[in-house]
């Protein structure tokens, strides 16, 4: 897979490049600001862009705004955002526009190479990857309405769903059977008033409800 990296910190950028190359990605461009990122994506059309949330010149939300442009103009390019701090509204902004091929992780996750590579591959394959700290903070803030109906275990399952985990991944994390996970998920759908329908993806709708963007 081909990747573009946008990160103004030289040391972190070099580290991310090395991790991606070790994981079999081809890094076709590495840049330090949002404008250069958009130019690189337009030129190379990568499979994934790894983007710092805050970049020059303002060091506010340049990376997020560039990510939204990428999602609109080049929807086949997945985006994984990296942030120094938990800024959960950015994850909600991105997911409200598109629920696939998106990730939001804290920069400290890069140090856990296996976990970081797993998130990269999941996002590049069309899935989602939300940092556990972001998900936990969202869970506290969104604990209202239909979410109040969920049991503690169901909240755990929904939290892992929001992090992009499959049923098998959730089962492994919670040390339960996949059938137990499926039962919890069906309960979640029922309690969030998400009836089965051909036109809707209930798993995505449940996560959006959790994030407060649907």
TrEMBL record:
Domain Response regulatory residue range list: 2-122
Q: Which residues cross the membrane?
A: none
Record CDD domains: LuxR_C_like, REC_NarL-like
Residues with 4-aspartylphosphate modification: 52
Q: Which Gene3D superfamilies match?
A: 3.40.50.2300
Xref: PROSITE patterns: HTH_LUXR_2, RESPONSE_REGULATORY
One Pfam family cited in the UniProt record for this chain: Response_reg
The HTH luxR-type domain, residue ranges: 143-214
Please give the InterPro entries that the UniProt record associates with this protein.
Answer: CheY-like_superfamily (IPR011006), NreC/VraR/RcsB-like_REC (IPR058245), Sig_transdc_resp-reg_receiver (IPR001789), Tscrpt_reg_LuxR_C (IPR000792), WalR-like (IPR039420)
UniProt keyword list:
DNA-binding, Phosphoprotein, Transcription, Transcription regulation
Protein name stated in the entry: LuxR family transcriptional regulator
Q: What is the lineage of its organism?
A: Bacteria, Bacillati, Actinomycetota, Actinomycetes, Kitasatosporales
């Amino acid at each position: 897979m081909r990747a573009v990296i946008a990160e103004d910190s030289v040391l972190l950028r070099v580290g991310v490049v090395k991790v991606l190359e070790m994981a079999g990605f081809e890094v076709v461009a590495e840049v330090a600001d949002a404008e250069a990122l958009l130019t690189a994506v337009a030129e190379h059309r990568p499979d994934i862009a790894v983007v710092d949330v805050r970049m020059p010149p303002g060091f506010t939300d340049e990376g997020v705004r560039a990510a939204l442009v990428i999602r609109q103009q080049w929807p086949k390019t997945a985006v994984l955002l990296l942030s120094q701090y938990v800024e959960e509204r950015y994850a909600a902004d991105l997911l409200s526009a598109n629920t696939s091929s998106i990730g939001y992780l804290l920069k400290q996750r890069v140090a856990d190479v296996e976990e970081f590579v797993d998130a990269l591959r999941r996002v590049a394959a069309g899935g989602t990857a939300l940092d556990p700290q972001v998900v936990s903070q969202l869970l506290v803030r969104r604990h209202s309405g239909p979410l109040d109906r969920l049991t503690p275990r169901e909240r755990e399952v929904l939290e892992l769903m929001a992090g992009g985990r499959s049923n098998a991944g959730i089962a492994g994390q919670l040390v339960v059977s996949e059938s137990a996970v499926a039962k919890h998920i069906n309960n979640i759908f029922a309690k969030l008033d998400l009836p089965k329908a051909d036109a809707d993806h209930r798993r995505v709708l449940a996560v959006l409800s959790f994030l407060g963007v649907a």
